[in-house]
């Protein structure tokens, strides 16, 4: 249920988020074929936000925010632009980093090429195990060597 909002955001943060989403929407429409038109539309969008940046009446500011969110929804793009490595992008998690335990399977000759790294790694592993045992205790199934 990650779609449920469980933190409160300030009005200013919501406005900044709306502005960023509006600029990304403009990129979806204009960036692919006309960079200059996109920049012009981005300046116009910034001017629309700057017109109301000093609004002190919270009811009016809230209504402006809701109207902006509604307009953003109504003008949403059929295929919004996404960065390739971002969630939803074509290359998201394409190159998943290997797990740390892979280094434990290296041959000693391979480890000998990086002596300082593996010496520090062994110290960090021992610190991690000691911290774990201090916090959770030793397991009953462990055998002392």
TrEMBL record:
One Gene Ontology cellular component annotation held by this UniProt entry: mitochondrial inner membrane
UniProt keywords, alphabetically: Acetylation, Electron transport, Membrane, Mitochondrion, Mitochondrion inner membrane, Phosphoprotein, Respiratory chain, Transport
Subcellular location, record wording: Mitochondrion inner membrane
Membrane topology type: Peripheral membrane protein
A single BP term in Gene Ontology: mitochondrial electron transport, NADH to ubiquinone
Chain ranges of the Complex 1 LYR protein domain: 13-72
Family: Belongs to the complex I LYR family.
Protein's name according to its UniProt entry: NADH dehydrogenase [ubiquinone] 1 beta subcomplex subunit 9
Organism: Biomphalaria glabrata (Bloodfluke planorb)
Gene (UniProt): LOC129927429
């Amino acid at each position: 249920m990650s779609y449920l909002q469980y933190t409160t955001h300030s009005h200013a943060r919501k406005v900044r988020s709306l502005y960023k989403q509006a600029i990304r929407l403009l990129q979806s429409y204009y960036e692919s074929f006309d960079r200059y038109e996109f920049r012009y539309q981005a300046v116009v969008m910034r001017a629309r936000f700057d017109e109301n940046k000093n609004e002190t009446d919270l009811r009016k500011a809230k209504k402006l925010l809701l109207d902006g969110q509604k307009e953003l929804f109504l003008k949403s793009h059929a295929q919004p632009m996404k960065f390739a490595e971002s969630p939803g992008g074509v290359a998201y998690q394409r190159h998943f980093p290997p797990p740390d335990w892979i280094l434990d399977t290296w041959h000693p000759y391979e480890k000998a090429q990086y002596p300082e790294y593996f010496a520090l790694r062994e110290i960090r592993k021992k610190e991690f195990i000691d911290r774990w045992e201090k916090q959770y205790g030793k397991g009953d199934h462990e055998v002392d060597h």
